[in-house]
Amino acid sequence: MKDKSEKASEMGFLDHLEELRWRILKSLFSVVLFAILSFVFSDFFIDLLITPSKSLNLDMTIQVLKVQGMLMLKLWVAFAMGVVFSIPVVGYQFWAFVTPGLYKSEKGWAPWLVISVTIFFLLGALFAYFVIVPFALKFLIGLGAPEVHKNISINYYAKFVMQLIIAAGLIFQMPVLSFILTKMGLITPVLLKKYWRYAVIVILVLAAFITPPDPVSMIMMCIPLLFLYEFSVFVSKLALKSSGENQEEESPAG
After folding, report:
1. How far from 13 is each of 4, 5, 17, 23, CA to CA, in Å?
2. Whole-model pTM?
3. How many Å apart are CA 195 and CA 26, to the nearest integer?
4. Residue 211's CB: how many other CB atoms inside 10 A?
5. Secondary structure in 3-state letters for the chain
6. Cα 239 to Cα 36, 104, 120, 179, distances in angstroms
7. Position 7 confidence tier, pLDDT thresholds 50, 70, 90
8. How many Cβ atoms sit within 10 Å of the Cβ of residue 247?
9. What distance, in Å, lies between the first and last C-alpha atoms of the chain?
10. Model pLDDT for residues 153-185, shown as the tens digit of each residue
């Protein structure tokens, strides 16, 4: 029976590049398609983004500062939602690309991977929408002096909220990434436990780049990190255990 390295070597380097190109093109096509559909419902998505500020009764006014402001906002929101809705597709394309290097029984994980990517992104997005965004808005808007009018550009406001939602959704992919990297043999539960301090620092730095430039958002993003990292270690153990069982099952009997 062919092992993983033999199966992966069946395709040449150029074949791998060609397949990767098609996987990327399919992902981009999904983003464009969902972006076009999202543009039709852009008013609904914009209303969802504004809802947290309304429910908090903040002393602020959201306004359009440019003539083309609403059009640019709709285009930006449509693109962002296109990326969000395409996450399951991108997850599947990534899994399909690494599938040739997996055992036959491991290839059946594709549906669960797509479901897991979607669920964890939704959990992160909901956490940001209902916890991080309201807390950050209430804290940051409350810092101003009473005599200072808080007139916020709707483009900046929408970008601020969407950044938090997408960032939280991506960070919540940590268990899924742990599963994939363990299956690929790049990490182990022992490695995750040994270097957890360094991993948290790397994640915090990454969170600082993908979240809005304020310490409150980054600190609030840290809350689920420890839980997610511990859960990622557990997921890595499951992935390693299933890989060992699959290897025993598919080993030739003499």
Report:
1. 16, 13, 6, 15
2. 0.77
3. 36
4. 25
5. CCCHHHHHCCCCHHHHHHHHHHHHHHHHHHHHHHHHHHHHCHHHHHHHHHHHHHHCCCCCEEECCCCCHHHHHHHHHHHHHHHHHCHHHHHHHHHHHHHHHCCHHHHHHHHHHHHHHHHHHHHHHHHHHHHHHHHHHHHHHCCCCCCCCCEEEHHHHHHHHHHHHHHHHHHCCHHHHHHHHHHCCCCCHHHHHHCHHHHHHHHHHHHHHHCCCCHHHHHHHHHHHHHHHHHHHHHHHHHHHHHHHHHHHCCCCC
6. 37, 15, 17, 6
7. very low
8. 14
9. 11
10. 898 899 889 888 988 888 898 898 888 888 778
C-alpha to C-alpha distances, 105 to 101, 110, 112, 117, nearest whole angstrom = 12, 11, 13, 20
pLDDT of residue 112 exceeding 60, the answer is: yes
The C-alpha atoms of residue 165 and residue 118 are separated, in whole angstroms, by 14
**Exposure on the CB side of residue 113, measured as CA atoms within 13 A:** 23
Q: How many CB atoms lie within 10 A of CB 114?
A: 18
Q: Kindly calculate the radius of gyration of the chain based on its CA atoms and give it in whole angstroms.
A: 22
Q: Where are the domains of the chain?
A: 4-249
Burial of 7 (0-12, 13-18, 19+ CB in 10 A): middle
Length of the chain: 254
d(C-alpha 212, C-alpha 46), whole Å? 18
CA angle 55, 59, 60 (to 5 degrees): 90
